[in-house]
Amino acid sequence: MTAGPAQSPATDGVERIVLGRGRHRLGAWRAAPADGTPRAVLVAVHGRGMSPGYFAGPVAPHTSLIALASSLGHTVLAVERPGYGLSRSSFPLGLPLAAQARLLRRVLADYAETDPVGAGFFLLGHSDGGKTALHLAGEPWGDTPADRLLGLDLNGCGWHYSSAAAHFPDTLAGGAGELNWGPLRLYPGGTFRASRSLLRDVPAAEDDETALWPARFPAAAARVHCPVRLTFGEYEGWWDLHEDELAAVAACFTRTRPPVVERVPEAGHNLSLGLAAPLYHSRALAFLEECLAAVPAPAR
Questions:
Q1: pLDDT for position 9
Q2: Phi (first) and psi of residue 276, to 5 degrees
Q3: Rounded Cα–Cα distance for residues 294 and 215 (Å)
Q4: Which of 229, 37, 264, 71 is nearest to 150 (CA)?
Q5: What DSSP assignment string belongs to 252-297?
Q6: Is 160's pLDDT higher than 60?
Q7: Where are the beta strands (DSSP E) in 109-227?
Q8: 298: in domain
Q9: Which residues of 120-141 are buried (b: 16+ CB within 10 A; e: fewer)?
Q10: Does the pLDDT value for residue 134 go beyond 80?
Q11: At a CB cut-off of 8 Å and minimum separation 6, what does 200 contact?
């Protein structure tokens, strides 16, 4: 079984499932369209020290990526990355980013053997989850729906860190508040209290790779073949976002068309928790529509 039975409802229309087998099991939150037949499967990959509830609109339901995407006919799999949640006991130190991607690729292939995936998979990754999603997009994919990667949407994930982030302040121990959030007015009331329940310890293997990312980004980007979209909030603090830097980021994607790079006004690093979340989510899902429109029609 690649998708275990529902354990308890996490929120309306969402069930908690198990992906994979044996030691290589990952937890996930799943929401399917009302008729159970997805147009595509959106795989949402949470960031550093976070959990799948990040995508569920913990304070304001209208900010939920899970609810919006499933209402548009997609199945959403908000996965727990290796070393988080269910897999913490199997991987107490976590896994390096590339190894996380290989395991995710394996469990998604297993999922497609037993569950409908529509036209294929679409990856959406936030922050460090974007790093994993970038590696995952560079894994081998095929041309059949069960093996197809439609597109990659990254938010809050760049190439070189900003000067303010150069010392890599710890998310849980404090010191990263301004980088993660930006101005308090960008978030619904109660967000910071509710977000405490979303936080998780950062696995050591992931933490160790933080400083290595700028050296590894170009090769990871160059392995991606699918369409790519990059989004940053206006008040993004972790990344260098100067015009020349963003042009260099786009140029690293040498095996696909240059990615769309967008800045969302009145938004911080944690885009899916902010008041701008509906705007970001709607644009990400519009990009998914573009990717679906590019899929060849099946032969008759």
A1: 35
A2: -85, 0
A3: 33
A4: 229
A5: T-TTSSPPEEEEETT--S-GGGSTTHHHHHHHHHHHHHHHHHTSPP
A6: yes
A7: 121-126, 149-155
A8: no
A9: bbbbbbbbbbbbbbbbbbbbeb
A10: yes
A11: 49, 50, 51, 84, 85
178 burial class (0-12, 13-18, 19+ CB within 10 angstroms)? Answer: middle
Domain containing 169 — which CATH number?
3.40.50.1820
Looking at the whole model, is its pTM more than 0.90? yes
* Full domain range(s) for residue 174: 9-293
How many structural domains compose the chain?
Answer: 1
- Written as six digits, the tokens of 227 are 């369409």
Phi, psi of 101 (to 5 degrees): -65, -40
The reported pLDDT for the residue numbered 12 is: 76
Tell me if 2 is assigned to some domain. Answer: no
299 in any annotated domain: no
The model's pLDDT over 237-277, given as tens digits with 9 standing for 90+, comes to 999 999 999 999 999 999 999 999 999 999 999 999 999 99
Domain-embedded: residue 23: yes
Residue 23: its pLDDT value, please?
A: 86
Are 288 and 42 in contact by the 8 Å Cβ rule? The answer is: yes
Percent share of the chain, pLDDT over 70: 93
Cβ(263)–Cβ(232) below 8 Å: yes
Please check whether residue 193 is in contact with residue 45, taking contact to mean a CB–CB distance below 8 angstroms: no
Query: What amino acid is encoded at 273 in this protein?
Result: L
